[in-house]
Amino acid sequence: MASLNKVLLMGRLTRDPEMRYTPSGQPVSSFSIATNRYTVGNDGEKKEFTDYHNIVAWNIGKRNLAEQVAQYLHKGSLVYVEGRLQTRSWEGQDGQKRRTTEVIANDVQFLEPRQNGGRPAGAGATDELPAMAEETARDVDPDEIPF
Amino acid sequence: MVNKVILIGRLTADPELRATNGGQHVANLRVATNTYGGKDDEGNRKEHTEFHQLVVFGRQAEVVGEYLRKGRLIFCDGRLQTRTWDDAEGKKHWSTEILVDNLQMLGPKPGEAA
């Protein structure tokens, strides 16, 4: 039966990736990216909205994607992500069932040149990142990030 | 920036139709995709089923409400959006939905010979 579950995203990381290991020793990295979209309201004013996405990267075949992501990406990095949607649920400390939808990456492409072992120029000093990253970083309200 | 989702899957329920305060039609759909999920211990192909919430607006919502029923195969593309709301007990809930740009019905109508 025909079936397709595909997501394409391009955006900037809202924080540094986190890598951890499963009990069986498999590395897995998670990070979140922001995508911006623009609409023009009835009053002709341009409005900007930001959507946030959780990405999960496992090693795939011979590509150490989880490790590469953790090594080369940082808050503000521009990336292209291709993957599939997956929803999982767990029980919170209050016993309530919670759900989250994530993008499981099949491919992550780094859209900025790596410098000095992967750190982009000015990493750690947000004001030296390109204008767009600065904007994204400023727009992020921790309470609004869904994870 | 790119924010694009492409799905082919089947409706797991009839569409739910409603209207916004401004009179715009909105349809909520639930779609299941079955994708390759690796192999079991005996080497047989496994399938991974995933459920998706879709939101359709405007004229397309009316068409969806009229023609789509549970079990119908569809193609759609759109973008991902996560929204939050507080329930009656003040608990925060998250929901990730696909806001549909394009929707095409695939396959025969349910009840017709395939």
Question: What does this entry look like structurally?
Answer:
The complex is a heterodimer of chains A (147) and B (114). Chain A has helices at 65-72, 131-139, and strands at 4-13, 18-21, 27-40, 46-58, 78-91, 97-110. By secondary structure, chain A is mostly beta strands. In chain A, strands 1-3-4-6-5 form a 5-stranded mixed beta barrel. Chain B has a single domain, classed as Nucleic acid-binding proteins (OB fold (Dihydrolipoamide Acetyltransferase, E2P)). Chain B is 9% helix and 62% strand. Chain B has one helix spanning 58-67, and strands at 2-11, 16-19, 25-39, 45-57, 73-86, 92-106. In chain B, strands 1-3-4-6-5 form a 5-stranded mixed β-barrel. The radius of gyration of chain B is 16 Å and the shape is globular. Chain B starts with a strand and ends in an 8-residue tail after the last strand. Chain A binds chain B through residues 1-11, 35-37, 51-53, 80, 84-87, 96, 98-101, 103, 144, 146, and chain B through 1-9, 33-35, 50-52, 73, 75, 79-82, 84, 91, 94, 96, 106.
From the alpha carbons, calculate the radius of gyration of chain A and give it in angstroms.
Answer: 17 Å
Q: Strand count, sense and closure of the main sheet of chain A?
A: 5 strands, mixed, barrel
The chain-level mean pLDDT of chain B equals: 91
**How many individual helices of chain B?**
1
What is the SS-derived class of chain B? mainly beta
The helix-strand sequence of chain A is EEEEHEEH
Low-confidence stretches of chain A: 121-138
Number of domains of chain A: 1
Helix content of chain B: under 10%
Strand content of chain B: over 45%
Cα-based radius of gyration of chain B, to the nearest Å: 16 Å
Question: What kind of assembly state do the chains in view correspond to?
Answer: heterodimer
